[in-house]
Amino acid sequence: MSPLRAMLVLGALEAFGPLSMDLYLPQLPQLADTLGASDALAQATMSACMLGLGLGQLIAGPLSDRHGRRRPLLVGVAAFAVLSLVCALAPTIEVLLVARALQGIAGSAGIVIALAVARDLYRGAELSRMLSLLLLVSGSAPVIAPLVGGQLAHLMDWRGVFGVLAGIGVALFAVVLFALPESLEPARRHAGGVRDLGGHLRVVSHDRLFVAVLVAASFGGAAFFTYLSMSSFVLEGQFGLTPQLFSLVFAANAVASIAGGQVSRALVRRTGAVRIYLVGVTACAAVAALAFAMSLWGLGLVAVVASLVLYLFSSGLGGPNSSTLALAHHGPRAGTAAAFLGFGQFAIGPIIAPLVSLAGTTAVVMTATMAIASGAAAVVAWCAVRPVARTAPPG
Description:
The chain is mostly helical.
């Protein structure tokens, strides 16, 4: 594939996560009212999908190492479209929670296999640059989805939004079918037995650089999901924004993330993935701590929003390099490695955020959780990722 085609197709597939979360985010409070659920249970619909996105990668990633990238991807995208319709028809919050988890499992194929395809085609600084390009497309989903979701709120309820997600699933199925060639030739696939899969898992788990990046990414994912799941309640409930204004703020944050990714792309050949990664993860921790302090001091909406914009910029700066470092030594088993990396990023946040929200969906609670998780990620990055990367530099 040409770089432009790879950017468009793989970026669209990586947008599964943002689309699944952000399109109905402005209507999350309405969903709670309609189904007679608490704010925590409404947030749990996001957690269920996020857990599905994490767990599903552990299935789709290894399957793509065995069967090639296209077949598991086509199955996952088709299932995502069907399960989106199930979500639209859910009569109770319990049914919706189950459907969202299954929808996440299906959609995870797009996220993990897109990353594996990128690793099939690129490595080193060029992989980091391609992942930054993918952010132009996948990062546009958090810009467009809340804006579209805010406007859809004028035309339909949250059930209609899930119908729109089903249509997006059908469109992405067509993209994969006609525009994505196979990137893992049969000679590089494993036979699929338990012994071969176990061998892949052993190699990945014994890579100290991968494990260090995975732990840091898991903490970073917890911080990001806390922002994702609580921001609508904080900005709409505490600060009084309308769903439409919230969509604009959320879009601004997504633009900041895209901008961070493009700064990374411009610098990585000259500076190296390790340095940019460390700058990004450190900046996330510092900005999250600043956001907590400003929330504690009651400095108001503008201060909180400004700090969130800076946080998302820092996250976009470090994110592509995190994936580059984790996959550096795992070309033949990129699906398996990407699966465990994705699982770590998606698994912790959905557990932490609903529990933390029991203390209140306020700016102080949200930013405090982000600061603690981001700080832990920075500590792991400096104490584990940096020393290992210096002794075993990525390819």
